[in-house]
Structure formats: C-alpha cells, structure tokens
Amino acid sequence: GRLMCCAAFLAPVHGYPNHYYNMTEQGLRNLFEDSLEVEKVSVLESTLPIWSLTWMLRSWANGLPPKARSEFLQMKVAELMGSGQAYLKSRFVKELSSEKNFELATAITLFARKS
Hints:
115 residues, mainly alpha
C-alpha cells in the first residue's frame, strides 16, 4: 500500500469538532519513518503559506471591534513587519477577542497541579 498524509503546520485552529496537532516536516517524518519508506515530503499548492497568511489576517480582523478593525485594515504590510514586542500596546493586539487569541495564538500554555 501507499500513504499520503497531509497535516496542518502554520494554520489557525481548524477542524470540527476538535483540532489537536500541527506538525513540522520533522514531526511528520518521525511519525512514519520507522515503519514506512518516506519517499518525499512536500508543500502542495493548496497548502502554501499564502493560505495561512490570508486566513490569519481575515480572522484577526473579524475578531476586532469596529474601530480597531478599521485601523487594522488600513495598515500596510510593511507596518506589520516589526518585532511582536513593538505591537503589544496596539489596539489591534489589545482588543483582539479572547476566542481569536486562542484560535490564532503562537502557543497555548496550560498550568496544572497534581491533586
């Protein structure tokens, strides 16, 4: 038999009813290389970075209140190329909804303790 496996990498939260994992190239290889001969790992046209970028920008804008959304949509790409630190006090960062922060986050951190 043959296997073709496509896994999300830099994609906002997606999938119904749940989304559990995003995979790097190395992570995807690691899943199969012990039991299968990996012939190649590719980025297909339908999974190029432009899909993540446009999805994230649309979703971000949709998660803002009207005034912050309008300001965000007026920004030029070059204005968004600085360090993340530089934007922490910006309206488009501070006013992003909690739901969108969870959808688009770089990482989610869980804190727990043993009972």
